[in-house]
Known about the structure:
Layout lengths: L7 E2 L20 E8 L35 E6 L5 E5 L15 E8 L4 E9 L25 E6 L5 E5 L4 E5 L10 E2 L24 E6 L5 E6 L10 E8 L4 E10 L6 E7 L4 E7 L10 E7 L8 E9 L3 E2 L10 E2 L5 E9 L2 E7 L16 E7 L13
Parallel strand pairs: 1-18
Antiparallel strand pairs: 2-23, 3-4, 4-5, 5-6, 7-8, 8-9, 9-10, 11-12, 12-13, 13-14, 15-16, 16-17, 17-18, 19-20, 21-22, 22-23
Amino acid sequence: MLSATVLTVALASPAVAGNGSADGDFGRPTLTGFASLPAETFVPNSEESGALIGAGPFNGIAAPFADQPVQGFSGIVNRHDGTFDVLSDNGYGSKANSADFLLRVHRIKPDVKTGKVRVLGGFNLSDPYRKVPFPLTRADRVLTGADFDVESIVRVADGTYWMGDEFGPFLLHFDAKGRLLEAPIALDGVQAPENPYLDGAQPTIGGSKGFEGLVRSVDGRRLYPLLEGTVTGDTPGDLRFSEFDLRKRAYTGKRFVYRLESTAHAIGDAIAVDRHRFLVIERDGGQGDAAKFKRLYLADTRDRDHDGVMDKTLVADLLDIANPKGIGGFGETFRFPFTTIEDVVLLDDRTLAVLNDNNFPFSSGRTPGKADNNEFITIRLTDRLHADRRAFR
């Protein structure tokens, strides 16, 4: 069992002077770029997908699809050349309906001048070295959405990728071509209903509530996977944020706790700003006009006021973004009103890129009755983050 050092994020903690505006929270961000990838974008010459979700139509789109959709951006890696690696999740929302969805990392190039996103290629995830000890869906060991629900991704100094899975939850380590390098690494005491080792025991976390966020420390020595759901026995709305030592390939036993503003909320992504501060997306489950809460917070592991909890500073309300230039053809207030917003990346000390997971073909947050595109936006903050320069690597 983990012997954990636990800190908690307060529901409405006072902001820390120096981390944002003089009065605490950052002000209203400004939209600086917009690009969109059409919902009906598919991997050329791939395989049929979507046969298990029903014929539909869903938001005007019928299944199955002749090829694999480019959908569900659940994690992002900045390649620092104008391109990004983005991670599709498990496919269609559950283990039962995603066996024909191939897990994949896509290389994209957004162009905020043209408003378009190009897909440059990518690679499927696979287990050719037979590192997974439990049965997989496919004999060729190409991984599917019935095997893992990958929701978060980081790239480390050797060019390999670590990903967070929700079904175990597991940490998964892949090479630069998407081949699994190690057996899935479990988190002690945490098992989702989809966990293959459950063996009749009671799960300790909700379905697909595993590692929604995965952070690489600024020194590159540790990972911090963030659960999406509360572990049985913990305070409702508290999410474990554990520390994993990359050199020892083991959890250190140290963890923090991110407390949601509401038990009805979920997190979407997390990234490091420095040794102590992390940007976290927190959201409700609404879309379109029903979306009420889509925010970015700075969560700080230092207890500056000595009250035993992490400080939490509002950085951006994604439903209230200034758009004085009318970028993207939108009005003076830009909203990012999607059910799932699951990607944030630092571009510079005042600029962030944020992407949605479009849950193809089910979500319709931008236009009712129309399947959402994958959108890529850039926003400029009112204040500098004062980020560690290593956070931009």
